[in-house]
Amino acid sequence: MKKKQSLSNTVLTVFLTVLSVVWVYPVIMILFNSLKLENAISTNTAFQLPTVETFAGLQNYANAIGSKGFVTAFFTSMLITLTSVAAILLFCSMCAWYITRVENIFTKLVYFLFVFSMVVPFQMLMFTLAATSDQLKLNTPWNIWVIYLGFGAGLAVFMFAGFMKSIPLEIEEAAMIDGCNPVQTFFMIVLPVLKPTMISVGILETMWVWNDYLLPYLVLDRKKYTTVPILIQYFKGSFGRVEMGPMMACIMLTVLPIIVVYLICQKHIIKGVVAGAVKG
């Protein structure tokens, strides 16, 4: 029995290792090509390691940062990500707390609507969304968080509500007996307990908002505002020529912050997802 279990664990480990390599391989190739000369990327040496003849050093990164408005686009993406994630964490945690503590037909209906929103394809809404955002003046980095709040609320409320059901109600009742009103109870008692799920939802939503291309492309006024994912497509010269070196460098500069954040906080993601899956 132990031999069979050991064999199955070995097979599973090998399979997951191969799968991990397959997923990581494109990122490694982008990293290698971001360090190569332009002609080396567009030839048969694109899948080879940089050599003395093809190595460009950090020149591609310097070109990426120094041209096409990368710095402005980076801070625009940062602003959108921070405001959107902060709004999702605050409003969705409060909404989930209300849904789980006030049990009636209305709250159950609201909860199912949030869950249902996760299965609605974005393509069904994007044209109407673009027109509506223009009418409501939600086409700037300062207020696009309202749209991200709507699209990110489904997953956030689902995870927060799942974790809320595991919090003993007696803790909140004791706080109210001590004189806390509902707002104080939430911010002083419930919110600190939500820390694992807060971190998980924050990281997942950050990866989504930071890497999102389609929604800002449809909503933002691109003559004034550009995010980093949109900026990548602008590395084109005349006659459709693409500046592959700076483009690869720009992709790495875009991906690197999310990879670092994910590696640092991955244990919190697993903990929060498991906690949010608790069924009350």
Description:
With 280 residues, the chain is mainly alpha-helical. It has a single domain, classed as MetI-like (MetI-like fold, Orthogonal Bundle). It has 13 helices and no strands. Helix 7 (145-164) runs antiparallel to helix 10 (195-211) and helix 7 packs parallel to helix 13. The longest helix has 33 residues, at 244-276. Residues 276-280 have low confidence and may be disordered.
Q: What order do the helices and strands come in, and which of them pair?
A:
Layout: H1 2-33, H2 38-41, H3 59-66, H4 70-101, H5 105-117, H6 126-135, H7 145-164, H8 169-177, H9 182-193, H10 195-211, H11 214-219, H12 228-232, H13 244-276
Give keywords.
280 residues, mainly alpha, MetI-like fold, 0% strand, globular
The largest β sheet comes out as: none
Low-confidence stretches: 276-280
Order of helices and strands: HHHHHHHHHHHHH
The CATH class is Mainly Alpha
Q: What is the CATH topology?
A: MetI-like fold
Overall pLDDT? 82
CATH architecture: Orthogonal Bundle
Number of helices: 13
Overall body shape: globular
Structural Rg: 23 Å
Estimate what percentage of residues fall within beta strands: under 5%
